[in-house]
Amino acid sequence: MASESESNLRLEIGHVLFIDLVGYSKLLIDDQKERLRQLTDIVLATRQVGEATNEELVRLPTGDGMALVFRNSLEEPAQCALEIARALKEHPEIQVRMGIHSGPVSKVTDLNGRTNIAGAGINLAQRVMDCGDAGHILLSRHVVEDLAQYRQWSQRLHDLGECEVKHGIKLSLANLFGDDFGNAAVPAKLAGATTQRKATGSFRIGLAIAAVLLLVAGIIFFRFKSGANFPRIRSAEAPPKSIAVLPFDNLSRDPENAYFSEGIQDEILTRLAKTAELKVISRTSTQRFKSSPDNLPQIAQQLGVENILEGSVQKPGDQVRVN
Questions:
Q1: pLDDT tens, 252-282?
Q2: By CB distance 3.0 to 4.6 Å, which of 6, 136, 300, 310 could disulfide with 291?
Q3: 188-220 vs 258-272: helix axis angle to the nearest 10?
Q4: At residue 100, does pLDDT exceed 90?
Q5: What whole-number distance in Å separates Cα of residue 274 and Cα of residue 258?
Q6: Is residue 98 a contact partner of residue 19, using CB atoms and an 8 Å limit?
C-alpha cells in the first residue's frame, strides 16, 4: 500500500496547455454544451492530440475548458495551441484563451478510483491563462526560454513583462501570435503595467535628452559665440558654424531600447535647428553613419560640416547612461 502511494505521488515534468472558453458562464446551458462540444472536436482534430497515446497525453476536463498534459516535448502544447487557434478562425462564436507552462505534475487517484493527474505545473498553466483575454496564447518564461532557441518560435514570441496572479505570485509572460493566429493586443491585466513602463521610459529619455542638450548648448555657446578655440574636424568649403548629429549607438542588449537613441538624436536635431546661425544636417543624411571615431573626418567631408556630435546610449536596468 505504501509503495502504491509513493508511486501515485511520484513527480514528473508535464508540458501543460490550459484552455478556457471565454464567457462560458454567461451562456445558456444548451449553448454551453454546444460550445464545449465544438471546442472538443477541434482539439481532438489536432495532430498532437489525435495521434497521442494515453501515456503521451493526459486529458483533463475542467468544466468550461480542458487541460492537456503532454509528456514528450515542450513544443507539443505550443503547436497544439497554434492549430486550435487557426481552426477557431472558422468559428468566431467560440472564444477561448490559452496558457502554456511546463512544470511538475504527479499521478493521483480520484474518488472514482481512476488515475488522474495534478500538480503545480497544471495550477501555474491556469494562472498563465488567466492573465489573457479572448484569443490570447500566453506562455510562462520557462517555456519561452526553451522555445526561443528555435527560429520558428522566436519570431512569434512577444514579451509582455510580469503579471501578478493569485497569492501575489508574479509570472513573466510572453504572447504567442502570428499573422493568422493569436491575439496581438496586450492583455487587459497587463495593459496598466505596460503604460506605466512606457511612461517611466519616456521620463528617463526626457532627462537624458535634457542633459545632452545642456552639454551641446554649452559647447555651441563657447565655440560659436565667444570664439573659443576648440579642435575641429576640418572639411573643405564647410561653414564653421555647421554640425551633424550622428545616430547614437544603442549599447543595450535589448534591441527594443533603440528608441532611446533614436529619440535623443531626433530631439537634439530639432533643438539645434532652431539656432539661426547654425547649419544642421538632416537626420536623413546622417542615418547611414554610425558613431566611429576612426572615420569622422571622412564623414565630415561627405556631409560638408566642420563639427560632428556622436554618442552612445545604454540602459542598464532602470538607469539610462548617455555618453
A1: 655 555 656 666 777 777 777 777 777 887 7
A2: 310
A3: 40
A4: yes
A5: 25
A6: yes
If you ran DSSP here, which 8-state letter would residue 26 be given? G
> Does domain 2-182 sit in CATH 3.30.1240.10?
no
Nearest to 64 by CA among 35, 86, 102: 35
Picking from 100-114, 171-185, 291-305, which range would have the lowest pLDDT averaged per residue?
Answer: 291-305
pLDDT at residue 236 is higher than 60: no
All CATH 3.30.70.1230 domain ranges of the chain, comma separated, are 2-182
For residues 16 and 101, the answer to whether their CB atoms sit within 8 Å is: yes
Q: What is the mean pLDDT of residues 11-18?
A: 90
Cα distance between the two ends of the chain: 70
CA 75 to chain centre: 19
Residue-by-residue DSSP string for 185-245: SPPHHHHHHHHHHHHHHHHHHHHHHHHHHHHHHHHHIIIIIS---------TT--SSEEEE
Asked if 67 contacts 122 with a C-beta cutoff of 8 angstroms, the reply is yes
Res 297: pLDDT: 77
What is the per-residue burial (b if ≥16 Cβ within 10 Å, else e) of 307-320?
bbbbbebbbeeeeb
**Cβ-Cβ contacts under 8 Å for 3 (sequence gap 6 or more):** none
Transcribe 57-125 into DSSP letters.
Answer: EEEEE-SSEEEEEESS-THHHHHHHHHHHHHGGG-TT--EEEEEEEEEEEEEE-TTS-EEEESHHHHHH
